Amino acid sequence: MDFPLRIATYNIRKALGNDRRRDPERTLRVIAALDADIILLQEADMRLGQRPSALPAALFEGQPFRAISFDDDRDSLGRHGNAILIRDGIDVLATAHTDLPGLEPRGAVMADLAVQGRVIRVVGTHLGLIRASRRRQLAALRHFAEHAHISARLIAGDFNEWSDVAHLAGLGAEYTVLPSPPTFHARHPVGALDRIAVTDEFTLHSIAAALTPESRRASDHLPLVANLTLQAAA
Asked: Could you give the C-alpha distances from 99 to 21, 49, 82, 167, in angstroms and in order?
């Protein structure tokens, strides 16, 4: 039987709000309010030193979700600022991370997850500011996400693309980039920078920016939330 899956992607800006306050607890409140099964974060780690998580581990105690470990040798929540949170009850089968080509340091994280008897591959990323780099990064992401036996795949994150969705065609024909509302700037959203791309095993029911008084303040991006249906395993 097909089943619902709620996905969110959110650039948390290292928990630095539009009021210039760094408030991890506020960021966690915004994330918890999304009530998502899988949450892909960008800018989840600080940039210097050991790149510690912008969300201290102690804050996750008592939350209905947990962060996936990517075996980084730093104190980071993820890799290159990319992290994946999952609801309790979802099992992690495998993880990986990769660097992406381009002038800026960019990367992606990946997790194979068991959700209600179905295995899906989820990739979180934050693409570069230069379009030529993004083209190369999209091609690298397509190869990074490939798997001979996992057909249900999802790539999401801050794609940093201001123009038409045609500029994201580098992901390949097997992915549909979902129609995204503007998520940037959180105070006055005009750019659909945050995106979710899925294979045919997912059906979209609704997608929206999580626009609340607190999400407007917590980051310069709004969270993007999609309600999907995932086909049951054949």
From this structure: 30, 18, 11, 21
Token output for 16 = 């630095």
Token representation of residue 222 = 């709004």
φ, ψ (nearest 5 deg) of residue 102 = 140, 170
pLDDT digits (tens, 9 = 90+) for 150-169: 999 999 999 999 998 999 99
* 111: phi then psi, degrees, rounded to nearest 5: -140, 135
pLDDT given for residue 234 in this prediction: 66
**How far is the CA of 103 from the CAs of 25, 31, 54, 116, 129, in angstroms?**
33, 31, 24, 40, 9
Nearest to 100 by CA among 147, 154, 43, 140: 140
Provide the whole-model pTM: 0.96
Kind and range of the H or E run holding 203: strand 202-209
Nearest-angstrom CA–CA distance, 138 and 199: 15
Q: Helix, strand or coil for residue 211?
A: coil
Sign of the Cα pseudo-torsion (205, 32, 217, 47, in order): negative
Question: Which ranges constitute the DSSP H helices of 104-212?
Answer: 131-145
